[in-house]
Design goal:
Elements lengths: L1 E12 L6 E3 L6 E5 L6 H12 L10 E8 L2 E8 L2 E6 L2 E3 L15 E3 H5 L4 H17 L5 H8 L9 H72 L12 H35 L11 H43 L17 H50 L5 H24 L2 H30 L3 H33 L13 H43 L10 H48 L7 H38 L19 H15 L2 H19 L4 H39 L6 H13 L4 E8 L2 E8 L4 E4 L5 H18 L5 E2 L2 E4 L7 H16 L4 E5 L2 H15 L6 E5 H4 L27 H10 L24 H9 L5 H10 L2 H5 L4 H20 L10 H6 L6 H13 L4 H9 L8 H13 L11 H11 L8 H10 L10
Parallel strand pairs: 1-12, 3-14, 3-15, 8-13, 13-14
Antiparallel strand pairs: 1-2, 1-4, 4-5, 5-6, 6-7, 9-10, 10-11
Helix pairs in contact: 4-17, 5-14, 5-15, 5-16, 5-17, 6-13, 7-12, 7-13, 8-10, 8-11, 8-12, 9-10, 13-32, 18-19, 20-21, 27-32, 30-31
Length: about 1150
């Protein structure tokens, strides 16, 4: 016996549940667990719905599964209640032969359903009781037969119907007399009505023929325009109004890119020449800017120290020469340091220096005193001459007056200055205005303070006497100092007596000696400082040279001299700058070449779409300028003429004329000539002229007959009589059958009750005996002619209905009934999966183990079982029992965490707190990007691009290209573009949080824009299939019968909306309204179920994406081809 085993399940759309996929089921026991609301029961119902699509346990499901039956592999894609079947990879019109849908309840054991007192599963319990009761009677449901046939033991007599029959006979006899009078009038009117109809038909025929004449005239116009249109070039048909602008835009872009490329290449060659001219070769790397800056710093120090050394050497030589010169001039030796110390035994050089210094100061003071005396004598004469004039001024100032002429002169100048400043300010010359104002104010202040100045001059007379006394005291002081110097000179000469020194015959030779010794000593001290500075400069020079060599060591350069070092460093900088620019220019050229390739591809595709080769852009422009406007005018005229023709033809072929709206036009009329039509109009006019007269005469006759018929009742009376007689005969026959049938049923029940014992009841009692440890026994009794389950408590010998049992006992009894049915189904053609929903929840641990063993027994006989639970202890029971008893019997056991499958983590311990770790590990981030994505898909952590409908559901793998970045983001549970893009919109945290750059974000946005456009474009020319759910959504004014015919027709055309419209237009459904066809066509077109466009291939998709995406510089052609391939689009646009 074959068994059905589910392999995979994909939930594409289900109420309250997002997309998820279970990639593998075990063939025996599957424990599916997860928190409440996670979708466990919906998963079980999905499995049953995929077996019985008409089960109606789910609302608008969209599911896919794969299962095996024997050696056959089946796939089913379910939308609503319409399945698409595949057998071993090939489409098939029918699914597998499975048990009927009414057996679905016995394959679903849910604690809520087992305890329900109404609904589908309660009805199933009653049905099970009915089946057992039927088996009691040899497999015949006698109760159902008696109920359906309405068998009764005491039927009633229909007295009311007998009275109604007698009354109906009287009414019929009265109506027969009235009917004979009207027959004669009807015969006469019939002949006249035939003539009236002929005349009316002739009038309508004339109207239709006149419309036909108009159609012929329009056809002549269309033919002439078609001839004119054929004179134009075929390329014009594919061209559009703005093609010239588009083409020129592409050409301008290409030229702009080529100009930039030429400039970049010239600059690249120039930098290559700069690099070559440096003469630097075989460098392992580009000179580091830090090394060059370091060397530059030390080279500057080297130059500075070199200059310092040269300067110190020059100063050393100069000071040595001066020391030698002073030594010669003092003692005729090269260096005074070599003189014998006895020469200075009495007087030291310090005393000689002191004497020379005091003598120089004395000479200076004597000179200053002489100058002061001369100044005093000269000023005395001048003061005497001015005394009289000063006295006069002082007297006048004391009186507060000046000479009139001087006062007038002084006041005129001040007034003129103020007037001039005002004039300058008025003219706008603010600079000179300020100057003249300041001068005027200064003159005014001088005028006011002149008396005080003259007073100060008068005070100078008292100072002359004090100056004379000062000169006298200074002379006395100088004379005293001069005498002291004479004494000191004598002592020094005595001390130096016997030395032959240069210049000793001169009176001032001692002063000269002291001065020279002083200069010698000062230069000696300065020379020692210069020598120290020179040594330090040499040390710094060598240190800077070493540092310079260390900076340029990677480039095999050492310091020789400053000129050479400057040249080397300059070449290194030129080499470094040139290489950097070469790299930049190379990158720019590569980017520009890529951009040029993209634009040329769009340019060539543009020309190709219009039938031109890439080099025929000028031909397109020429043809456009020459013929485009004329072509469009003729084309527009032809379109209008065709519309007019189509409108007239539609009116003629589908239209009607006259009051009764009967169709009188014919297809063969369209083949007639104009002359033939005119002749027919003349012939029909003879009949049509009589129509008005006949209509008036016949209306009078019809009115008279109608008045007479108002009193006629024969038809009504006859129908009433016939109906009454039939009703009475039927009721009498039913009463006879009820009595006879009831007698037969009673006899059969009595004869069969003792002969048959149902196998199902035996199996159910065996299961119940095991589960309840021989306490309960099951039986079926009729209650109000309805079979009902009873249980007998063998401990207290009481019979009980199920309603009085506890919840746990009731579950055990009904579970035993279901298992009994399954046990008896081993002879069926197929074993179907059994689904249990938390049936252990109301059972104690001991009976739970018994139930688990019973289920494992079913599994061991080849039945696939799914156990659904939200309780961790139930998962543990199944696993422990399997490990302890059933693993060694080779029973397959699989746990499925639905939260993990749906890629969601439940962190609240109050909801879900399994001990085992159910976290799905990500692949190793050190893998290559493609291998990382493959492992994501193999582990069920990533959806393929073929199964995605919205950009928000696209996996980040398709947008990124770096394994480490993708791993970091997925570790934070961001795996799809929708949540991650929202994170970007809310803040810039991805940049800091995941180590992304602004360029990364721009790249991902550009790629998401491209994929979103691809998802939409891939549907072009590929309309969605139409099913019953779609048809129900259309507002059609049709009855159930018409809808059933429409549903069958959509299946015949394979869900193709366009073919359905064609079938309706060709009258595949009789008496179908044209308005309903138009409604369907409009709905299908608006909602994507009809799309006449040709599907796009790979090249069209590439070109469209590059034109659509705003920042297409981030779109790599290689990546784009990979994405299109991942969507399953081949070169000609077919989906793989």
């Amino acid at each position: 016996m074959n068994a059905l085993y589910f392999k995979k399940l994909t939930v594409n759309s289900l109420r309250g549940v997002e997309w998820f996929e279970i990639s593998e089921f075990g063939e025996q026991l599957n424990v599916i667990y997860g928190p409440n609301g996670e979708g466990k029961s919906l998963t079980g119902k999905s499995l049953q719905t995929l077996i019985w699509p008409k089960l109606n346990s789910l609302k608008d499901p969209k599911l896919w599964t794969e299962f095996v039956i024997g050696n056959d592999r089946w796939e089913v894609n379910l939308v609503g209640d319409e399945p698409d079947w595949k057998l071993n990879g090939h489409k098939t019109g029918e699914g597998p032969q499975v048990p009927t849908i009414d057996t679905s309840a016995q394959h679903w054991l849910g604690v809520q359903e087992l305890l329900s007192t109404n609904g589908t599963h309660h009805d199933a319990n009653l049905k099970f009781a009915q089946q057992i009761d039927t088996l009691y009677h040899g497999g015949v449901d006698l109760g159902w037969i008696a109920k359906e046939l309405n068998f009764r033991s005491n039927p009633t007599r229909p007295k009311k119907l007998e009275f109604e029959l007698r009354e109906c006979r009287k009414e019929f006899e009265a109506a027969q007399a009235t009917e004979k009078e009207l027959d004669a009038k009807r015969d006469r009117l019939g002949k006249k009505e035939e003539e009236e109809n002929d005349a009316r038909e002739a009038a309508r025929r004339i109207e239709s023929l006149r419309d036909l004449l108009e159609i012929l005239h329009v056809e002549e116009k269309v033919a002439a325009l078609e001839v004119d249109l054929k004179q134009f070039d075929d390329h014009l048909e594919k061209m559009k109004e703005d093609d010239i602008k588009e083409l020129e835009k592409f050409e301008a872009e290409i030229q702009e890119i080529e100009d930039r490329l030429l400039s970049k290449r010239n600059q690249l060659n120039q930098q290559e020449n700069y690099k070559k001219n440096t003469g630097i070769e075989n460098l392992d790397r580009i000179p580091d800017q830090r090394d060059l800056d370091c060397a530059e710093k030390y080279l500057k120090n080297i130059r500075d120290e070199s200059n310092n050394i040269k300067r110190f050497q020059e100063e050393k030589a100069r000071y040595e020469g001066e020391i030698k010169s002073y030594s010669k001039s003092i003692a005729n030796v090269d260096d005074l340091d070599h003189l014998d110390s006895k020469l200075f035994r009495k007087k030291t050089f310090k005393e000689i220096f002191s004497y020379s210094k005091r003598r120089r100061e004395l000479e200076k003071d004597k000179s200053d005193l002489s100058d002061l005396e001369d100044d005093l004598n000269r000023s005395s004469r001048e003061v005497d001459e001015l005394d009289s004039d000063i006295s006069l001024w002082i007297n006048r100032l004391k009186g507060g007056e000046l000479p009139n002429s001087l006062s007038f002169f002084w006041g005129s100048i001040i007034t003129a200055s103020f007037i001039l400043s005002i004039f300058l300010f008025w003219k706008g010359d603010f600079g000179w205005g300020v100057v003249t104002s300041v001068v005027a104010i200064a003159l005014l202040v001088g005028w006011r303070i002149s008396p005080s100045l003259l007073n100060r001059l008068n005070q100078g007379d008292g100072n002359k006497e004090r100056e004379k006394n000062l000169v006298r005291r200074r002379k006395e002081e100088i004379n005293s100092r001069e005498q002291v110097l004479k004494d000191d000179r004598y002592e020094i000469e005595e001390a130096l007596q016997g030395l032959k020194l240069e210049g000793d015959e001169n009176e001032y030779w001692l002063d000269v000696l002291g001065s020279r010794v002083d200069e010698w000593w000062r230069r000696k001290c300065e020379l020692e400082g210069i020598i120290g500075s020179l040594e330090c400069a040499k040390d710094r020079f060598q240190c800077d040279c070493d540092n310079y060599n260390r900076c340029l060591e990677p480039y095999f350069i050492r310091f020789k001299d400053c000129v050479d070092a400057e040249a080397q460093l300059k070449n290194l900088r030129v080499y470094h700058d040139a290489q950097e620019k070469i790299d930049n220019f190379s990158s720019d050229i590569k980017r520009e070449e890529g951009a040029e390739e993209i634009v040329r591809k769009i340019h060539n595709s543009f020309l190709k779409d219009r039938g031109f080769k890439p080099e025929e852009g000028l031909e397109l422009k020429r043809l456009y300028k020459k013929d485009w406007k004329k072509f469009e005018e003729v084309k527009e005229q032809l379109s209008e003429a065709n519309k007019e023709k189509e409108l007239l033809s539609s009116k003629y072929l589908n239209g009607s004329y006259g009051s009764n709206q009967e169709k009188i036009t014919y297809q063969e009329d369209l083949e007639k000539t104009i002359n033939e039509i005119n002749d027919e109009i003349k012939n029909e006019s003879k009949k049509a002229d009589k129509y008005k007269e006949l209509l008036e005469t016949n209306n009078i006759t019809r009115h008279k007959i109608a008045e007479a018929e108002e009193g006629r009742t024969i038809e009504v009376a006859f129908n009433k009589l016939s109906k009454s007689k039939a009703e009475l005969d039927s009721v009498l026959l039913e009463r006879e059958n009820e009595l006879l049938g009831n007698t037969i049923i009673k006899w059969i029940e009595e004869e069969s009750a003792e002969r048959f014992e149902p196998e199902i009841l035996k199996k159910a009692n065996e299961e119940l005996s095991v589960i309840t440890y021989d306490r309960y026994q099951l039986d079926v009794r009729s209650m109000d002619e309805v079979p009902t389950f009873f249980v007998k408590d063998l401990q207290d010998e009481l019979e009980k209905e199920l309603d009085v049992l506890s919840a746990g006992e009731r579950v055990q009894v009904l579970l035993a009934v279901r298992l009994g049915f399954l046990r008896c189904s081993v002879n069926d053609s197929m074993q179907l999966p059994l689904i249990l929903d938390e049936v252990l929840g109301t059972t104690d641990d001991i009976r739970a183990e018994t139930i688990i063993d019973t289920i494992f027994e079913l599994v061991s006989h080849g039945r696939q079982v799914f156990y659904l639970t939200a309780r961790k202890n139930e998962v543990a029971k199944w696993k422990i029992h399997w490990e302890e008893k059933w693993r060694e019997k080779k029973i397959d056991y699989k746990e499925i965490n639905l939260s993990e499958v749906r890629n969601r983590s439940n962190k609240s311990d109050k909801v879900w707190n399994f001990d085992q770790d159910v976290t799905q590990d990500l692949p190793d981030p050190n893998l290559s990007y493609s291998e990382y994505g493959k492992q994501l898909y193999d582990r069920g952590l990533m959806r393929s691009l073929k199964s995605v409908r919205k950009i928000s559901s696209v996996d980040l793998f398709y947008l990124m290209d770096n394994t480490l970045k993708l791993h970091t983001i997925r570790s934070e549970e961001y795996d799809r573009w929708g949540p991650f893009s929202q994170l970007i919109i809310d803040n810039n945290s991805p940049i800091d949080r995941f180590g992304l750059s602004e360029q990364d974000i721009k790249l991902y946005r550009a790629r998401s824009e491209a994929i979103e456009f691809l998802l939409k474009s891939s549907k072009i020319g590929r309309p969605d299939p139409v099913d019953r759910a779609v048809l129900k959504a259309v507002s059609l004014n049709i009855n159930e019968e018409k809808f059933k015919q429409l549903s069958e027709l959509i299946k015949e055309v394979g869900g193709d909306g366009a073919k359905l419209i064609e079938a309706l237009q060709s009258k595949k459904i009789k008496r179908w309204k044209i308005d309903d066809t138009d409604t369907l066509e409009e709905y299908f077109t608006d909602n994507g179920y009809i799309d006449p466009r040709k599907p796009w291939g790979v090249e069209e998709l590439e070109d469209s994406v590059l034109r659509h995406v705003t920042q297409n510089q981030y779109i790599d052609l290689k990546w784009l081809k990979q994405i299109i391939g991942a969507m399953g689009v081949d070169q000609i646009g077919e989906l793989e």
